Amino acid sequence: MPERILTPCIFTIFGGTGDLTRRKLIPALYNMAVDGLLPDELAVVCVGRRPLDTQEYRDSLLASVTKHSRYPVRTDKWEWLRERIHYFRMDLPDSEGYPLLKAWLDDLDEKAGTQGNRLFYLAVAPSLFEPIVLNLHGNGMVTNNGSWQRVVIEKPFGRDLRSASFLNGVIESVFPPENIFRIDHYLGKEMLRNLMVIRFGNAVFESIWNSRCIDNIQITAAETDGVENRAGYYENSGALRDMLQSHLLQVLALVAMEPPINLDYKSIRDEKVKFLRSLLKMDDEAFRNHIVRGQYGEALLDGKIIRGYRQEAGIHPESNTETFIALRILAGNFRWGGMPFYLRTGKRLAKKTTCVVLEFKSMPEILYFKEYKGLQPNLLEIRIQPEEGISFSFNAKKPGSGNEINTVKMDYCQSCGYENNSPESYERLIADALRNDQTLFTSWEEIEASWSFVDSIARSWEKETASFPNYIPGTWGPAASDELLARYGHHWWNL
Ligand SMILES: NC(=O)c1ccc[n+]([C@@H]2O[C@H](COP(=O)([O-])OP(=O)(O)OC[C@H]3O[C@@H](n4cnc5c(N)ncnc54)[C@H](OP(=O)(O)O)[C@@H]3O)[C@@H](O)[C@H]2O)c1
Prior knowledge:
By secondary structure, the protein is α/β, with parallel strands linked by helices. It has helices at residues 19-34, 54-68, 75-82, 97-112, 129-138, 161-172, 190-200, 203-206, 231-256, 265-278, 284-290, 368-371, 414-417, 425-435, 444-462, 479-486, and strands at residues 9-14, 42-48, 85-89, 118-122, 149-153, 180-182, 214-222, 291-294, 299-301, 304-306, 324-329, 341-346, 353-360, 379-385, 389-397, 405-413. NADP nicotinamide-adenine-dinucleotide phosphate binds at residues 15-20, 23-24, 48-50, 91-93, 123-126, 154-156, 233.
């Protein structure tokens, strides 16, 4: 069990009535309260626009906690948290509200014994980041003088390198870099945190983790859902910006970076940045040959009509937004030179899964591989969600008098043994922000490197109109995604 957080603090959530707060942040705080992690001197101030008072707001949260927490609601624990939650109503772009917010927080600070420490969590649209941050500064709420003030920023961090740089400039003009926590909730997932231990804590893995032994590495983040109620956001973002820029490139960096010199977040960040900067730039031909974009169409699945992306509420009927992307990437560094990384992500795919598969080189076709053509190469599969675990498949003789060979699996299921007890990403990340540990947050340098890679893809796409829709819901995406790998003698491992 992690240690209790001892630092007093007012945790101010801008966007207190939003989906993220209700589905993730408050349930995460409740789980942390059950685990006894939160300090007694804690106040949670939720800022929203709706006309609610604190009692109404507190009452409205119980249903979310009941539905979204991993622990059942225990009256004593819920009451402990409930009485620390407050609602403050204001219109965030309006600077007149901030002096009132300051006075109110200062007053609460005295009552709750929170010693001036503030964690400002921006659970709002990115267009509100600038007015919030500048008004906090303009009203003397970020002094870092004898107390600390930190800011947590949700993704998306910009829409391209230019907007991200602008946003970063605004935030860094108010908060020093060590007090800025850019969340990518994927990084809080248990198996991603485990990845470094697997890689650098086992001689057997680290010594074969290179292009001499590995044939290709595949990273998949597949969803079965469609765009659901996120049309407004998704139409402007698509799979490239929503998933590749942040989650997928972060997973890739953790899989492929060099060993850091220690576990300090700066050392880890430096290695991730170095790897992201080593990704080879593509020319127009490579863009065409190595990247596939897709959009799901309409289909009849299990007797039910599944609407195509263009038929979803809030989506333009001729939308050019991609709901799928697959790509082949090469890194120009010593460890990986020439070895392909295949990444894919999409909505309405065959299975909900996020996983990494390392396909090892096949043995020379001299002994068994000559005789048994169907033998599978060794695979190391790291399952990140929904199931968490790792398995290694290898070839072995079938028991009996014959000489038949089959592929067998050694499997470690991390989530099986810890059902319900494996903390959600947001629990870990909130605790880390309160403890001032940046390890699982994304630095500006990583964001800059990944936007510069993603921008080049977005620019190449602008030159041509895609032929959408081009894949059927419930499949693994467009046929071109399979063809991409087949051209290089590979295929996706749809495990
Ligand atoms: N939802 C998720 O699972 C998720 C996951 C990752 C990242 N994010 C990011 O987190 C942020 C919030 O997402 P969300 O899904 O929670 O959005 P949401 O449900 O639309 O909530 C937006 C929040 O912002 C508040 N707000 C908007 N304009 C305001 C104004 N002028 N003054 C005061 N409050 C205002 C809303 O208050 P009212 O309700 O009173 O209008 C609401 O509390 C977005 O940047 C999103 O991309 C969300």
